[in-house]
Amino acid sequence: MTSVAGGVGERRIGLRTAGPAVRAPGRPTARDPAADTVRARDRWLLMRLLAAVESVPRLADRLLAERGSLGAVLALSDERLRQLGADARVVAILGLVREAIAAVLAPEPADRPRIADAGAVAEWLYASMAWLPVEEVRALYLDSGQRLLKTEVLGSGSVSGAAVWPREIARRGLELSAAGVILVHNHPSGDPTPSADDVAMSRRVAAALATLEMTLLDHVVIARGGWASAMPAVARPSPLSASPLSTIDMSTAQACAGVAQRA
Question: Which CATH number applies to 12-19+110-248: 3.40.50.620, 3.40.50.200, 3.40.140.10, 2.30.30.30?
Answer without folding.
Answer: 3.40.140.10
